[in-house]
Amino acid sequence: MDDFQKAMQRLTGARTVPSIFVNGAWVGGHDDLLKKTKSGEIAQILGVRISPDIIARLAEEPQNKSNATNTTSTRQARHYHRAIRAVDDNGRDGEGQGEGAVPLDSSNFHQFIASHRSVLVDFYKDGCPACIHMAPKIEKASELLSSSSSATDQQVAIAKVEAHSGVVDDYGHLVQWFPTLVLFRQGQQPTVYSGSTQPEALVEMLSR
Predict the structure, then answer these.
(1) How much is the pLDDT for 39?
(2) pLDDT score of 88
(3) Please, which residues have CB within 8 angstroms of residue 24's CB and are 6 or more apart in sequence?
(4) Does 106 lie in the same domain as 89?
(5) Is the domain of 166 the same as that of 189?
(6) Where does the Thioredoxin domain lie (predicted)?
(7) Residue after which a domain boundary falls, among 37, 58, 93
(8) Global pTM value
(9) Which CATH number covers residue 64?
């Protein structure tokens, strides 16, 4: 083990284990893996998208703290394997920001906008920490909107567009960073929404 640790120190500058590599890039130890998974850095390295729900589960502590096996090392092992499963699951099923907001790209964007009175579009980028933070609010607002009469009676909706979908280039004068929320209303020029991003506030704004 001593020879191994010396070799790792020469390679990474650290002797501690676990020492984790992802796609050939040294991530660090257990805590580094969790931190970089939550920030979106691991998703960027792997070229996948990790949903906010999975990231939230990574932060959960084991419930039975009195269990004799619930030692620090056991907790670390559980978190470590959760992080690995999160990356692996997302690589397979392509789970994204959630199921509430309607995903749009260049093939359906303009038709969708034209068929609704008002649409709030979340322009986001895969792996962007701020986008990951925004996503649960967008999804919750979408759920609230779909359960209200506004979605059908007033033809309003919430959608999401990924940075590389082929749509962003048309709105570069509005989308200069990620995430950017853009409000599309029939008969009006699209505008950047800069109000409250609380789900209830988003639904109330769209329903006006």
Answers:
(1) 78
(2) 43
(3) none
(4) no
(5) yes
(6) 81-208
(7) 93
(8) 0.54
(9) 3.40.30
Long-range Cβ contacts of 36-41 (<8 Å, 24+ apart): 37/83, 37/86, 37/87, 39/129, 40/126, 40/127, 40/128, 40/129, 40/131, 40/132, 41/127
Query: What is the domain-level CATH number for residue 158?
Result: 3.40.30.10
User: Do both 63 and 116 map to the same domain?
Assistant: no
- Looking at the chain, list the stretches that DSSP marks H as alpha helix, in order from N- to C-terminal side: 2-12, 30-39, 41-46, 52-58, 72-93, 109-114, 129-146, 150-153, 199-207
Residue 40 to residue 129: CA distance in whole angstroms: 6
CA-based torsion, 4, 6, 10, 16: positive or negative: positive
- Paired with 122 in beta bridges are 160, 181
**Which region holds residue 137: left if phi is over 0, alpha if psi is between -120 and 50, else beta?**
alpha
Which residues form the domain of 198?
Answer: 102-207
Residue 15: half-sphere exposure toward Cβ, Cα within 13 Å = 5
Could you tell me if 108 and 88 lie in one domain?
no
* Domain closes at, from 93, 120, 143: 93
The count of structural domains within the chain is 2
* Residuewise pLDDT in 10s, the chain (208 residues): 566 666 666 666 776 777 777 766 777 777 787 787 777 777 777 666 666 666 666 666 444 444 444 444 445 444 444 544 444 444 433 333 435 899 999 999 999 999 999 999 999 998 888 898 899 999 999 999 988 765 555 689 999 999 999 899 899 899 999 999 999 999 999 999 999 999 999 999 998 8
